[in-house]
Automatic annotation (TrEMBL):
Protein name per UniProt: Arf-GAP with coiled-coil, ANK repeat and PH domain-containing protein
Span of domain BAR: 28-184
Source superkingdom: Eukaryota
Main location: membrane
Organism of derivation: Characodon lateralis
Signal peptide: 1-27
Alphabetically ordered keywords of this record: ANK repeat, Endosome, GTPase activation, Membrane, Metal-binding, Repeat, Signal, Zinc, Zinc-finger
SUPFAM superfamilies tied to this protein: BAR/IMD domain-like
Amino acid sequence: MSHLSLFFPSWYSAACSLLILQRTNLATIEEVEGDVCELESKLDKLVKLCIGMIDAGKAYNAANKQFVSGIRELAQQSAKDEVIESSLTKFAESLQEMINYHTILFDQAQRSIKTQLQTFVKDDLRKFKEAKKQFDKVSEEKEAALIKNAQAPRNKQHEVEEATNILTATRKCFRHIVLDYVLQ
């Protein structure tokens, strides 16, 4: 038996241990929240870079199409020389095939990268932020219920019961919200 147990009841040391555990968990939650904010920032930047890449690719394809048109015009102009006309036509067809593949690439990038990332940032991270708001609100309500319970005059039984019932209900709600928040 320790010397502290002479001065403090066993429930006090259990409450202190629980408080330390809660503070450790809150520190971990705050670290994860920071990581999520950093992730959101980096994903936003990646989406903007992807949009820039897609726009630049579309401009590149438009310039290539004009170049192919110029080559085709030159091939028609050179109809008198079959070798030049044939070579220019084949070159234009090869460039057109490359343009088609680039168009597919940029469409796929838009669909698979940009759209998916934007959906993730807007929907999934929004749900996380909403869960955080709920967590913060219920945490404050739990703190208020704890204070009200601690300050309830012990000689007024109905106020003690009311404060205890509010605290119990708030704790149950808090546990559910914490699980939702941690799972987000």
